[in-house]
Amino acid sequence: MTQDKFSVAIVGGGLCGVACAVGLLKLGIKSTVFEATPKFGEVGAGVGLGPNALRALEGLGILDAVMARVEDKEFADRRSLFVSGHGTHETVYDYENSTEWTVADAGLAIHRAAFLDALVPLLDPQTTQFNKRCSSITTLPSGVHRIHFTDGTTHDADLVVGADGIRSTTRGAVVDESAADKLLQFTNTVAYRGLVPTEALVRDGLKTDLTKRLHMFLGIDKHLVVFPIKSGKIINIVAFSTDNSVPVGSVAVPGPWVQPVPQQELLDEYAGWGPDVRIMLNHMKTPSKWFIHALKPLDTFIRGRIALVGDAAHSMCPHLGSGVGQGFEDVYVLCQLLAHPSTNLSNLEDVLRAYDTVRRPRANMVLERSFRAGVIYESFGKPGYGLQDMEGHLAGIWEPIWRHDLSGDISTAMAALSAS
Ligand SMILES: Cc1cc2nc3c(=O)[nH]c(=O)nc-3n(C[C@H](O)[C@H](O)[C@H](O)COP(=O)(O)OP(=O)(O)OC[C@H]3O[C@@H](n4cnc5c(N)ncnc54)[C@H](O)[C@@H]3O)c2cc1C
Q1: CA-based nearest residue to 235, from 274, 183, 278, 193
Q2: CB of 157 within 8 A of CB of 32?
Q3: Ligand 1 close to Cβ of residue 22 (< 6 A)
Q4: Per residue in 150-191, pLDDT tens?
Q5: Closest Cα to atom 4 of ligand 1
Q6: Domains of the chain: residue spans and CATH
Q7: Whose CA is nearest to atom 39 of ligand 1?
């Protein structure tokens, strides 16, 4: 049985850590998940999953469990309709024109908590440990990694998966420790997030039908991403605002990266925007403000027998809604490699090198594209781009991410492993 060959510890029980534990278990590999918080939990927000993310979940054997939690209309069309944030919200670009994907092919939006609800029951509760915050990882002469926790305890594992998110501690064990702090930068963009009942928006005179499509409301230095969840009954709103007066990386955020803010701050940010934007913001009574940080592309996702997945490896701007999808691709490739018949304790480092060879270039490409997408969205209107420029920039923007041959990645990774 594969599980006897080596022990696996997963640091972080977020979307990627849990997907990894379940994916491994389905392949007969037991792991232990160490989560810093007292229980599994997710912020009350939606998350968009592109077709590539769904294919990765399918490969992991967990798509059905996730789909069982998705309400019909959550097949909201991911092919964005870009509209002006001002005036009468004229159409800027319809992504349907870019692609032959059907609605069903184009991904879905799901409430984050529903995703965990789908997967957590598939985990063995005995193999999850809560209140375990990793503080560092050391390596014993045998090559075994020792995970140190803030409560003074340790855990030894042959293989460590670092799935501890954007402020990852495990990243410090993979990249040059002195550089680790400088790799994560505030992007000068903040995001205000909220969930609003559709009914309330319509009652106040909303003209745009937000129940079927993902809408992007564009303007200079700001944009909103708006999509339906819960069968269109709830609208997920993320309002971004960027300070372009200072270079990226020059501002450090001293306080928490997520803060509750008075609604007035949000209303002031969008003063003068169009009527539907104002209606949406008026209903975000208790917005939370997220200081969007992103990693500079890492030179490696692995060291020894430690592999980073998800935001620990490639925390990116959310502008292409692709962060967790890249995390699921990581997890899918890693699980397949670990379950390969030729994988054993003695070649785990080769296995991780094969993982890094395939996953790092692609995830870093998506990371860089995600930053660039935000710049494009927030350049619409004078003195920025006009309609024709926008069409040129937006056409096909998701295609390299969505139309990707994941099984080809697995074959490439297997070939790299065989060659090592
Ligand atoms: C505003 C916004 C909108 C977004 N929208 C989308 C979208 O539509 N589509 C999309 O694909 N992505 C989106 N993303 C990105 C997506 O949320 C992340 O890529 C995803 O949550 C990463 O999952 P993860 O499991 O790697 O990390 P996380 O979900 O952050 O999980 C990390 C887990 O590790 C735990 N942990 C942290 N430190 C430690 C430690 N030291 N020891 C033990 N445990 C630890 C945490 O408690 C947490 O449970 C968005 C992000 C933002 C900010």
Answers
A1: 193
A2: yes
A3: no
A4: 999 999 999 999 999 999 999 999 998 777 778 999 999 999
A5: 318
A6: 2-76+107-183+295-419 (3.50.50.60), 185-294 (3.30.9.30)
A7: 164
